[in-house]
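<tokenise_the_fold>
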Amino acid sequence: MTRYLLAIPVVAFLFCAVVSCSFAQTTPSTPPASPSDSSTRAQAAPISDEDMAKLYLIRKDFPAAEALFRKLTRQQPKNALYWDYLGISLHHQQQVSAAIKCYEKSAKIDPHYADALNNIGTGWYDLHKYSKAIRAYKRAISVKEDNAVVYMSLGYAYFADKKYEDAIASFHRALEIDPQVFDHSGGRTGTTVQDRTVEGDRGHFYFLLAKSFAQAGNVERCVIYLRKARDEGFKDMDSAKTDPAFAGVLKDPAIQEILNPAPPQTAQP
């Protein structure tokens, strides 16, 4: 099962335009095409290998995308974007080590290409090499400090590495940059691979997310993740009552209901 999420720039309209052109028919009321019109249609540019490869990614035909991006990297070996996309097509085929090498090649060509650095981190995360993932995510942040997605990914890596306070700080920073970052279905830039698989105690993870949302003043999301933590069997729910991070949301009735549930009613005789 593919655990990472990918956003590709939408170029499908190009494909649709080509298909529409190929199926166009002349109606009886349309005058015969002149030689110049035929020449214009004949000279219409076909879809490029790059756009076709991106379409293959959209259609999840990853072997076909890989083949075209390999061709493109041979033609333009100094194109950092092509190496990144080649890595993405391999990553989706679970060839993670090979994907990391492509991402590293991309970052070597363009050391300021934050997406490639992020993808290196996600590759190491998928291989459970959390310290390496953390270093890669930090490099991506050093290049582009305001990337909420990378801070979120860094938080996941810190959590998996049992560095919980660092995870909280990363999640909080991600929410400062983009309060909806946890609602997005994929990368924000089109070339970012994300893994949102929780490695470790899911109840603890959801509690930390609730804490992050409490610090951000988002009561609704705090309630959602507190409930998830409770439902996953997190055993230290009472710590929220004395944790300063929750001070601003403790009086909310929904929070109180979670932290101080009513005792179950006994059946009347």
Remarks:
- The first helix runs from residue 12 to 22.
- Confidence is low (pLDDT under 50) at residues 1-5, 7-31.
- Strands lie at 4-6, 193-195.
